[in-house]
Amino acid sequence: MSTSRTTIFAAIRQALRTPRPHAHRTLPKPTTPDFQLWLPPVGATASEWLDQFRERCNVLKTRLELLPSLEAAAAVLGQIAHEEQWNRLAFHPDPRLQKLVELTQRPSLCLERPGAIAELADCAAGITLCESLIAQTGSVLVTSTTCGGRSLSVLPEHHVVLAWREQLVPDLTAAYRQLRQRHHPDYPSMISLITGPSRTGDIERILVLGAHGPKRLTILLLDAPE
Amino acid sequence: MTQTPPALQFQRDAHRYTANRSERAWIRRALRGYYAKRDENRDRFSDWAAARRAAAAIKTEAIDRLDYWLEMFEKNFSAHGGVVHWASNDREAREAVAQIVREKKARLVIKSKSMTSEEIHLSAALEKENCEVVESDLGEFIVQLRHEAPYHLVFPAMHLKRDAISRLFHDHLGTPETDSPEELTMIARRAMREKFLRADIGISGVNFAIAETGMISITENEGNARLTTSLPRVHIAIMGIEKILPRMEDLALFLPMLATAGAGQHLTCYNTLICGPRRHDEVDGPEEFHLIILDNRRSLLLADAEQRDALHCIRCGACLNVCPIFQNVGGHSYGTTYQGPIGAVITPHLRGLKSWKHLPAASSLCGACTEICPVGIDLHHHLLRIRRNGAIASPRWWEKALFEAFALVASYAGLFSLASGLGRWGQSWTQWLRGSWADPARAWTRGRDLPPPPPQSFRTWWKQRQAAEP
């Protein structure tokens, strides 16, 4: 046990012997569900969530495509690949992603083994699944175990997400609850909440998209069973 | 070589900066856009005031049982395979990182934004180990090239115009000059890509440390922290002890508040939770994950029960944005890692009251900082408390004498009458003195006018009025 650790904890315990002077500082601990009373409102139905998600995507400059089938998604994906002249698109092992990529008939890279990461830097696009979509904020939740690792969703210039309508949850609280239910206690080593393409305001506080992360974020949202 | 005392340096820098009206106007313009967006997003909250109280309550819960939550955090964090290093002060923190750099024989370190790493002067220490350190955050990258300190907690380069940045990139990177912010950002993107892929070690900060799940949370817009913590073989994170948050679910409140107050955004682009190095079943990620937990006199601030809530700070920068002093003296004048009202409160604790008690004195006490703080820190009252503590610790004999003299005069009506009569008489014929070298109060009178002396005192006027009434 390090002596610094002992010193720090001793200092903390000694410091906490003196209580704060103001009684009103001990406010009642709020229970998590109460957050929604104060945060921006979110709809009550799945249809309202979709509208809210669409509105958020519009503000964030995330491209959202609502599609009836995997084939329709492949058509849109192929069109984007052609417009942007993708040299290669990367994806992680999953039968639905596999099918989607095959349908687009473009050169691809499947991140099956650690060595493949070295080739990822040259890929124009990365396609991943996601854990959930959050209506209140227009966010996509990805993890390193279910969505192809840490780099796939951030290194290529265009990040595409394949998602299903039933993955849409109303707010952050619901998203965290679902994460806990699915993964606790063996959490993925990285869990990221992505809200729009990468951006910066560091130059004269002017918004520029595509700082270091993806310049473009596209969500292919399937209106079909998962 | 003796260093200029911080108080004197502050006076000089502030004086020089306030004379620069174009820079001040530039900063005000930059902030106007922020105010509009912040208010827009704040109004979307169903109840911002209640959200603030809740955030304050959660942070109170965290800080008032800091040892409990830190122990829980350490246990859960270590269970995921991360290594914790405890650092009592900046020297120990620097040494802990330097040790890892040496062990790994690292030549290139890439950093994402971390004010804590600035606090401990980490980059200079690593450069001594013959290791190149690159700041990946665009604003930090810019000020690093200029060998400058960050101007603002959240927007390190907000004082610079695009032509200055263009010239900077031209001189250091050999890129063609441009006046497009988009092109300048792309230049930085291209320059940084190679560094991300080549770096041996990635160093990040920590916005929140989640006790219950043993995870750290990093908030950013650019994606550079995502890359810093994904590509290099080793990830080192640095945090102060106060970053603790009890539960993962608390982020559902804190992330939107941090985004709204700090940048006027609904939610920041990337909010990432990291627990441990890569898992055996994951395709990429660092093989090692080290976390430096730093005290560096935060426990002293904790011991000051009156001002303990300053440890609630989530480093959003909202108080800087609303502070009239910050807007007019600029971030560099403070001469510290942490600027603005929060900087004025914590710096005397972290660096010593005697040398830094001048910062709380540079305040109009408007209270805008306290009003905007999302975690309920009583900022403007702390400024008063530090001034009080400073006066008790190093009393000025003439100040004490003046106040004692005033107390004496004010205790006797006759004396008070005499004194105010003398004052009125003196005011009129010392007019020529005012503001000149002979005026003992010239620091005040140089920029202020006293109102003209009235023809008679209130008491005299009242007596006359009473006598005149039937």
List the SSEs and their pairings.
The complex is a heterodimer of chains A (226) and B (470).
Chain A: H1 3-16, H2 35-38, H3 46-60, E1 63-67, H4 70-84, E2 89-91, H5 95-104, E3 108-110, H6 117-120, E4 125-128, E5 132-134, E6 139-143, E7 158-164, E8 168-169, H7 172-183, E9 190-194, E10 199-200, E11 208-209, E12 216-222
Parallel strand pairs in A: 1-12, 2-3, 2-4, 4-7, 5-8, 7-12
Antiparallel strand pairs in A: 5-6, 6-9, 10-11
Helix pairs in contact in A: 4-5
Chain B: H1 6-19, H2 21-44, H3 48-64, H4 66-79, E1 83-87, H5 90-104, E2 108-111, H6 115-119, H7 122-128, E3 132-135, H8 138-145, H9 162-173, H10 181-198, E4 201-204, E5 208-210, E6 215-220, H11 224-228, E7 234-240, E8 244-245, H12 251-263, E9 270-274, E10 288-294, H13 298-303, H14 318-322, H15 324-329, H16 340-351, H17 353-356, H18 358-361, H19 368-372, H20 379-393, H21 397-411, H22 413-429, H23 442-445, H24 458-468
Parallel strand pairs in B: 1-10, 2-3, 2-4, 4-7, 5-8, 7-10
Antiparallel strand pairs in B: 5-6, 6-9
* Helical run tally of chain A: 7
Helix content of chain A: 25-40%
* Number of extended strands of chain B: 10
Biggest interface, chains and residue tallies:
A-B, 86 and 104 residues
Reading side by side through the largest sheet of chain A, how are the strands ordered?
1-12-7-4-2-3
Unreliable spans of chain B:
none
For the biggest β-sheet of chain B, the strand order reads 1-10-7-4-2-3
Calculate the terminal CA-CA distance of chain A, rounded to whole Å. 50 Å
Distance between the termini of chain B: 77 Å
The radius of gyration over CA of chain A amounts to: 21 Å
What's the rounded overall pLDDT mean of chain A? 92
**Unreliable stretches of chain A:** none
Number-wise, the strands of chain A total: 12
Q: Oligomerization state of this entry?
A: heterodimer
Which class of secondary structure composition applies to the elements of chain B? alpha/beta
Main pleated-sheet profile of chain B:
6 strands, parallel
| Alpha-beta classification of chain A | alpha/beta
Main sheet of chain A, how many strands, which sense, barrel? 6 strands, parallel
Share of residues in helices of chain B: 40-55%
In DSSP terms (H or I, runs of 4 or more residues), the helix count of chain B works out at 24
Net shape of chain B: elongated
